[in-house]
């Protein structure tokens, strides 16, 4: 899902007012989708901002399939109006003050799930260069047996120079000492210069699709030049496209829960992943023996799974806090199904430190608890810069701890993106104004 946010602020001297605009797809059927563009005021009190009465439908993009790169064609009128509101503004009446003022507007950033990141930014969200912060300085690599891109051992570079994990040759890629620094975050000016250097065209320019397809073969992760670059101030924005905490948290939770419970077809621990372990030369005790795989310390047995599900079934929640998880429990198959994003959010932040405390070894329980507390701290209504800087230091350590526990197949781009969330919160503020919950509701 995709949401575009615009921030308009009201100052006594120039009369700026804040609104937010949302673009989000509504799947009607398998072969049809609808993409409404919604505008919401941003200069409202916390108890009013991002609420349904203040979301105004402005555009609908219908079609039988995802608009993909062509979304820029539908956004052209919007960008033109934003340019007009930035340069000239519009004469508007203020009901509260009973006076007229010149309203101006600016697009501050976009909010979108990760697949939609490509549609709005032009940077690919698949493959080795999926991370929009690491970009072509990514350390992701391909697993030959699992046949997927892996982000295992891509996080030691974010650690302090003196951290012992950097010199660990056993638990990470065999024999590798990490000496690299974290990737440098590029400015908007640098990205725009890079796009112009490659020669990308905007999708509405003549022969743009064929031209961009040819240029993208030599441009790492770039696929197009976004229409947002038509805004004169876009290159000066520190954050242009937000990573959606809601979807990242849900995907991380799904990977953890399905792996711990060995859910068939969803677990990240399987025979192909164990063969990849052998190829990487790590954790010999988990290497496959013929067609069977030794039981790992991070997986629960049937008795433990049954106890966990029975415990979940017995829990009673306050009205409106979370859905009734007892309905999502399948005791016969020993798994949870139909978990909504908010259910995963509550489980990740509130239940993980409790649920697995007595079921898993202390080392694994502590690592999962630290990850749970990280997401809980990230989604608080009040954030302190000092706390966020500490979280930026802590999250690489937490992910490295998980890398010493789970197999490489566990680490896809979602686990990696968690490392950048604290930085975005430090720059852009509370995630409650930058995620998809209000619009999915």
Helix content: 25-40%
Strand content: 5-15%
Computed over alpha carbons, the radius of gyration is 23 Å
What best-fitting shape do the alpha-carbon axes yield?
globular
Mean pLDDT: 87
Number of domains: 2
**Counting H and I runs of at least 4 residues, what is the number of helices?**
12
Multimeric state: single chain
Describe the sheet with the most strands: 4 strands, antiparallel
Low-pLDDT windows of residues:
1-19
Give the terminus-to-terminus CA distance: 12 Å
Based on secondary structure, the structural category is: alpha+beta
Question: What is the strand tally?
Answer: 13
Succession of helices and strands: EEEEEHEEEHEEHHEHHHEEHHHHH
């Amino acid at each position: 899902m995709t949401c575009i946010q615009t921030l308009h602020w009201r100052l006594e001297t120039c009369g700026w007012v804040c609104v937010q605009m949302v673009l989000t797809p509504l799947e009607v059927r398998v072969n049809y989708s609808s993409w409404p563009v919604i505008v919401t005021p941003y200069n409202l009190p916390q108890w009013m901002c991002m609420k349904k009465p203040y979301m105004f439908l402005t555009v609908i993009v219908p079609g039988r399939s995802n608009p993909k790169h062509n979304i820029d064609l539908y956004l052209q009128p919007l960008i033109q109006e934003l340019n007009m509101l930035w340069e000239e503004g519009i004469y508007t009446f203020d009901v509260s003050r009973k006076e007229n003022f010149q309203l101006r507007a600016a697009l501050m950033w976009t909010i979108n799930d990760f697949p939609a990141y490509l549609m709005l930014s032009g940077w690919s969200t698949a493959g080795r260069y999926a991370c929009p912060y690491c970009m072509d300085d990514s350390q992701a690599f391909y697993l030959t047996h699992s046949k997927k891109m892996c982000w295992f051992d891509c996080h030691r570079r974010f650690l302090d120079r003196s951290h012992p994990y950097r010199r660990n040759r056993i638990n990470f890629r065999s024999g590798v000492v990490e000496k690299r620094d974290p990737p440098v975050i590029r400015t908007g000016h640098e990205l725009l210069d890079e796009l112009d250097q490659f020669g990308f065209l905007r999708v509405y320019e003549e022969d743009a699709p064929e031209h961009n397809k040819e240029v993208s073969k030599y441009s790492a992760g770039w696929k197009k030049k976004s229409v947002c670059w038509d805004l004169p101030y876009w290159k000066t924005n520190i954050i242009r496209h937000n990573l959606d905490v809601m979807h990242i948290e849900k995907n991380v939770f799904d990977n953890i829960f399905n792996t711990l419970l060995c859910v068939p077809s969803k677990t990240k621990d399987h025979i192909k992943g164990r063969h990849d372990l052998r190829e990487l030369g790590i954790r010999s005790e988990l290497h496959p023996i013929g067609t069977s795989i030794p039981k790992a310390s991070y997986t629960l047995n049937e008795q433990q799974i049954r106890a966990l599900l029975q415990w979940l079934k017995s829990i009673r929640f306050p009205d409106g806090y979370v859905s009734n998880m007892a309905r999502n429990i399948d005791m016969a198959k020993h798994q949870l199904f139909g978990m909504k994003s908010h259910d995963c959010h509550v489980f990740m932040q509130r239940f993980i430190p409790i649920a697995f405390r007595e079921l898993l070894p202390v080392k694994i329980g502590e690592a999962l608890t630290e990850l749970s507390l990280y997401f809980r701290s990230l989604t608080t209504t009040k954030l302190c810069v000092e706390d966020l800087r500490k979280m930026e230091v802590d999250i690489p350590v937490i992910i490295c701890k998980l890398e010493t526990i789970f197999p490489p197949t566990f680490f896809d781009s979602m686990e990696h993106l968690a490392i950048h969330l604290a930085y975005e919160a430090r720059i852009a503020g509370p995630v409650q104004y930058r995620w998809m919950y209000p619009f999915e509701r």
